[in-house]
Amino acid sequence: MIARLKSLVSPALLVVLVPTLIAMIYYGLLAEDVYISESRIVVRHPTQGPRSPLDLALDQTGFGAANEGNNTVISYLQSRAAVNEANEDGALKAAYSDPELFWFDRFGLFGDSDEEFYDYFQSKLEVDEGATTQVLTIRVRAYAPEQAQAINGRLVEQSEALVNSLAQRSQADLIAIAEREVEEATQKARAAAVELARYRNTSGIVDPIQESEVGLQMISKLQDELIAAQTRLRQLQTYTPDASQIPFLRTQVRDLQAEIDAARGNLTGGRSSLSSALTRYQELQVESDFAEKQLAATRASLQEARAEARRKQAYLEKIAAPSLPDYPVEPRRIRSILAALVLGLLAWGVLSMLAIGVREHRD
After folding, report:
1. Which residues of 201-226 are buried (b: 16+ CB within 10 A; e: fewer)?
2. What are the backbone angles phi and psi of residue 103, rounded to the nearest 5°?
3. For residue 263, what are the CA distances in angstroms to 93, 153, 202, 266?
4. How high is the pLDDT of residue 206?
5. What is the C-alpha separation between 83 and 35, in angstroms, rounded?
6. 259-280 burial, b for 16+ CB within 10 Å, e for fewer?
7. What is the rounded distance in angstroms from the CA atom of residue 78 to the CA atom of residue 129?
């Protein structure tokens, strides 16, 4: 019986007492106090309307559309760029590599490269998003309360700068596209106007439509005079064939007919006629009118793009500023020591059962 107890005491010392003693020494005497600074932010979009209960339910089940701005901030905070920018002056790395810290807790135990510091800092940073409120909670762990607050503040400021930069870039791109369309429409309208002016100068015709109307009015007047002269000539030939006015009227009728034919030739004759000029003029006028309308439409689109850019201005709102912790939340010393004791007892129990099984198998 005594021999059996002695055989059990040795594994118990190794599996239970030694790990528990180590945990008591580390958590009770050596482990550094960890202070946690917490801040809460949210990325707002002014155009984002109220969400329906269905959207909220889908978000809770994981099938809803996440807040794009929050996802951007989370990805940024968990990136190497965020750590490098926060450690631009070396203050971030210095906060975790203070020689006064216990060697097991401080950074630099296995190397001091930027890549190793990034991996080390991931255990000091925690970013959570609420299921329904979409408020981001940023927690930073450090070995001094002021350092935890300062690091958290840096990360919040960097996130705000990122959101502002992305919003300004999106606005600039949207307005730049609209301005480029206005410039192209302006060039087309100017080219159409220059082409129309050049045609007027080369043809010597300001407005073929107005000149055609004038020509038609002149032909109408000449036709009235021709009809009156022909009527007068027929009357004289019928009632007074020997009248001295008959030769004059004949000459007048012939001249009026010639003037009418010439006027009609100017309107509907060859390539230099007003009819031919009117066809080309109408083509140029249609192109000019279309270019002007397109220019007006692009200018309206530019105003709408500027208004849309103002409506889509995303911004980061600080729900709660980085807190200054006044009590070290971690490490949970008693809980950790008890956990080491429980794990040691479980391991000792498993090993004891295995030893009994092996001994019974031999017997």
Report:
1. eeeebeebeebbeebeeebeebeeeb
2. -60, -30
3. 96, 88, 22, 5
4. 54
5. 19
6. ebeebeebbeeeeebbebbbee
7. 13
> Considering only 83-87, 109-113, 280-284, 341-345, which range has the smallest mean pLDDT?
280-284
To which residue do tokens 């055609």 refer?
212
Strands 125-129 and 315-320: unpaired
DSSP track, 261-281: HHHHHHHHSSTTSHHHHHHHH
Look at residue 250 and tell me whether its pLDDT is greater than 90: no
Number of CB atoms found within 10 A of residue 24's CB = 16
Confidence (pLDDT) at 19? 79
pTM (predicted TM-score): 0.60
State how far the Cα of 320 lies from the Cα of 310, in Å rounded to an integer. 26
155 closest CA partner among 167, 142, 170:
142
Amino acid at 271: R
Contacts (Cβ under 8 Å, ≥6 apart) of 99? 106
Helix-strand-coil split of the chain, %, nearest 5? 70, 10, 20
